Amino acid sequence: MDARSRYILQSVVAAAAGIVVIPLLVVALDWRSPLSPDWRYGLLGGLWSATAVFVWFGVFLALGRSRWLRWSGRFVAVVALAAFAALVIREGRFQWMRYQVLSADPLELEAIGNHIVVGYTDLDELRTLLEKRAVGGVFITARNVRGKTMDMVAAEIAELKKLRQLSGAELARLWVAADQEGGVVSRLSPPLTQLPPLASIVSANADLAQRTVAIANYARIHATELSQIGVNLNLAPVVDVNHGVINPDDKFSRIYSRAIADDPLQVAEVASIYCSELLHAGIHCTAKHFPGLGRVYNDTHQENATLTAPVAELARTDWIPFRELAKNSGVAIMLSHVHLATVDPEHPVSISASVVTDVLRRQWLFDGILITDDFTMAGLYYLDGGMGEAAVSALGVGVDLILVSYEPEQCYPLIYQLLETKREGRLDLPRLESSRSRMARQHLSGFMTNQD
Known about the structure:
The structure is a single chain. 54% of the residues lie in helices and 8% in strands. By secondary structure, it is of the alpha/beta class. The radius of gyration is 25 Å and the shape is globular. The chain starts with a helix and ends in an 8-residue tail after the last helix.
């Protein structure tokens, strides 16, 4: 290869490196954003290796004879070094927050941990969180039951409940939550029975009496199996009214495929029967996703979303199932991260005082459990102040349980922020005490005693 050809090749490679190194920096700056926990640390290793390669290659180019190559090399090396520094700083800060949480006094952690429900990928790490009273609940999903029998899952949950009791926490019973709706969201199947969506039971039984029996039988299977393995909070049923909204880019919410029906009265009827069976077995059911996602186009897993319908219209339609189920104190309500534009356009419902405090607690007089949707969703995670400040807001407006399920490690910065806020005197302690009393009543009311 002659000198000119070599120069052209080096120039092309330098330009390509200059283009590729910029996304590398972007990923490094935000690498702790919610990703699949299964390949989180594989990504970290890849980023370390990539930054090292780009730094070396940038230095190599910077030693060239051409001014273009020298400047290209410096650019690549500087950006790669910035990516390396971002990784060191972000990961270092994360590990420091993790250390601060795990070294905190359990008595100090308990007031916060009572309100955290966390998923898990590492059983030993979850054991430590429970022993430290850093969390008050666990979320069990497909990755935790894959390849296991029901007896194996039951034994694991029983161990976790025992750890909670032995920790000395005042609220000794552990929330054990699951997403077992039926249909596409049946996270514990297998080993639990895979059932069709509730909507299929409705469509197959036009007669009211037959439908009532069929739904009760359906719910009894869920109730029996969840009780057998030790789940005491099922994040079902979906009571969003089906308005036929289909977003081809919606990969996760897909309410149109999970909703019970397009008639709010029928949704309320079916959900009431379903919840009655669960409550009879000592399992809390959860009406989700308030204020109703059936009209919402965007998916809060991936982006911000807004519900623009007037409150009066929602009260006549979408809120009927929620209000019906809210009459039973054993029913929890899950708060979505959608913005309810006509009430509070600035904040997601899950942290909105105008929605949670004013509408649910004061107007509806709802004194049951309020649990958020997963805090690692993009619709919440990327708020100004991050998950930590959002958690402070959520507990401050009357939320009882904060769910951190998809990527459990995100609980560390969240708990750290709550600890720091408490130490600064900015945490609403009276509100926390009201929530603690609410949960204590649920524990003592008989709903959880058959399993705990």
